[in-house]
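Q: Predict the bound structure with flavin-adenine dinucleotide.
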Amino acid sequence: MTKPRRIYLLSPKDYSPETIAVAFAKTSRSPQPFDEIAAELNDERSARFHEKWVVGYGHASVAEHAVLHVALENVSRLAIETIEGNRLASYTEKSTRYQQWDADDFYLPDELAGHALEPAFTRTVQDLFSTYLECIPRVKTWLAEFVPRGEGESQVAFERRLAPGAVDICRFLLPAASLANVGMTINARALEYALCKLLSAPLAEVRAIGEQLREAGQMETPTLIKYAACNDYLLAAAESMAQHSQRIPDALEDSSDFHLMAYDADGQARVLAAVLFRFGHAQTFQACYDYVDSLSPAEQASLAEALMAERGKFDQPLREFEYAQMTFEAVMDQGAYFEFKRHRMMTQTPQPLTADLGFALPAGITAAGCEGQYLEIMHRAGALYEVLYAWNPAVASYVIPNGYHRRVLFTMNLRQVFHFCHLRGASNAHFSIRRVAYQMAEAVTQAYPLLGKYLDLPAGETWQSIEAQHFRAINVR
Ligand SMILES: Cc1cc2nc3c(=O)[nH]c(=O)nc-3n(C[C@H](O)[C@H](O)[C@H](O)COP(=O)(O)OP(=O)(O)OC[C@H]3O[C@@H](n4cnc5c(N)ncnc54)[C@H](O)[C@@H]3O)c2cc1C
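A: Predicted complex:
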């Protein structure tokens, strides 16, 4: 008789994460059911198993079955970049769009405590916050002039509805030292590498987070992460490459802030051929590719149409869209980058925060009569950055507000382009990242017109129209 199918959970309420990982690992050699294997385990046996197999023999994938949910509170947004710099994890963090920061919600870097530059840092960051808090009600008053009030909507409800719009505009003032909370779900294998990166970071705050996180993680996964440590390779590569990069002349002036640097010239043909390969019979990929290549442009267009016609708004394109790869270089404000970095299905290389690439001036700041104070404090933060940079480049990043620009290199595939443009081009997304999504869509549509035309962004807008509507100046120096 066929054995009965069983599908059930090994609940973390019953077993520790390390025991669950061992119960799954043992199925490789044992014919026993999972719950029987788990029932024979305890923390000590699980630890011995992991020491032997995961640590000793390097069977690291076993650690992926041990999952932790970590709450991190009052960490700087600068530190969050390292915390979230791990692709194989899930995060939710305090939003600069749905929450307002209080005046003292910032981190004073350990490196600065007692240093001659501490008062200047504290004063500048406090002034950024006070400008942020002063501008919000003024921007709200300006928004109230043209946002229609709903019938029967109370003043309180109306103001609550205006708040996100005002915060979206004023968030350009928030410095990287702003404190936030982030929840992270991560498996022990990814956590071990995350800890190496945290413990190897140049900032004292980030290293301290690494220590605390290792301590907290060891309460649930005592064996799997206990060898996580500062990594000499990471330190040496950072130091030697920073030195080498000084030989390259600066090229700060650039007429465009978005470039498609490289892409698979035959990316469309590869995607179409891969889809035919998937749904074909026993043809080789080369045969599918040659077939697509033999089609006229009109025939290729109708093949693309047949592939995309039934796709709904929330349907991901088929995985074969991943066969077209692109590399971009973009300059975006730090607020946009903070959202951009959350997209894990790409390779991203951001440069450190800087004041050298100027900052954006949102139109709402000017319209609300706040331009003078905005420019004054943004310039002052940029000037302090230069002073701090000469002393400690890593610490200098804390003072950079969200409105300053940053250069990012990234490689992604066409499937992720669809996802990114859908999510970040949507009309409810922040205007800074919408501008990036439309720039990307424009470049991709030129490179891959047959498939790019199916990118779903709201019609009738361009990155230029978004820029014209939302920015008084895109690059103030
Ligand atoms: C309206 C809106 C409000 C938001 N508010 C907040 C907020 O307040 N706080 C906040 O922190 N974030 C917020 N975000 C960010 C959002 O939750 C995403 O984390 C972020 O946009 C990255 O996109 P993504 O998760 O779709 O995945 P990407 O990293 O871009 O990955 C692409 C796709 O791969 C798949 N994928 C990737 N990783 C996993 C995984 N681990 N498990 C399963 N599938 C995976 C998913 O299908 C995903 O869509 C908001 C986004 C929107 C659109």
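A: Residues 1-65 form one domain.
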